[in-house]
Structure formats: structure tokens, C-alpha cells
Write a structure and sequence with these properties.
With 111 residues, the chain is mainly α. The chain is built from 5 helices and 3 strands. A 3-stranded antiparallel β-sheet has the order 1-3-2.
Length: 111
């Protein structure tokens, strides 16, 4: 923790990004959060939290409906699973996911 933020080494973030991109055939495709949870083996609450945090684009929302961009779900799930394997912790993996996606956003904004 640094200034109440989770500090993650840039090297760790770079390792997690290697070879991970949104699969073009999935980009923009709608997937319900419960279906995404089953398909990508990620807790539906985590997917919802990541979407609310801006890590995954929300395509549609209703009282009992949350539809996400499947390409972004696929990328986030892959990063999360790599991070969980590297850290052995679901919590740390979630922190790494958010930091990695933020770094990817910064990189794409500067290119």
C-alpha cells in the first residue's frame, strides 16, 4: 500500500499483459454476466464489480440484467487467471487486473 493505493511493480503488470488482447470475433459481442461467469470461470459478482469499476464495458443493464462486452470479459478473465496463478490470491489478482487494465488504457491513449 502506498498512499492508500495498491502498489504493483510495472514489471509485474508488463508480464501479465504479454500476449493478451481482445479477440476480434468477441469484441462488442453481448454476453450476460451469468453466462460470462460460467464460460470464463470467474465469479459473477467479480465481473459485475469489474464492470462497475470501468474494467469491462457494460452494453445493457436492467433491474436483473447486466450485459457485458464479451471481448473485454475474455481479456479481463485471462489477466485475472494469470494474476491469480502468479500470486496465489484472488484479492491480489483483482488488484493486478485493475492495474494492468489501467496500464493498457494509458498505453492505448498514447499510441
Amino acid at each position: 500500500m502506498v498512499n492508500d493505493e495498491i502498489a504493483v511493480a510495472d514489471e509485474d503488470v508488463s508480464i501479465l499483459q504479454l500476449g493478451i488482447s481482445i479477440r476480434s470475433e468477441l469484441q462488442g459481442q453481448p454476453i450476460r454476466v451469468m453466462d460470462a461467469s460460467e464460460k470464463y470461470n470467474v465469479n459473477h459478482r467479480s465481473l459485475g464489480n469489474w464492470a462497475e469499476a470501468g474494467c469491462i464495458r457494460i452494453l445493457d443493464r436492467g433491474p436483473k440484467l447486466l450485459v457485458l462486452d464479451e471481448g473485454e470479459v475474455q481479456r479481463a478473465a485471462e489477466i485475472f487467471h494469470r494474476a491469480r496463478q502468479a500470486t496465489g490470491s484472488y484479492v491480489r489478482a483483482g488488484w493486478l487486473l485493475k492495474r494492468t487494465l489501467a496500464q493498457l488504457d494509458i498505453q492505448s491513449a498514447t499510441t
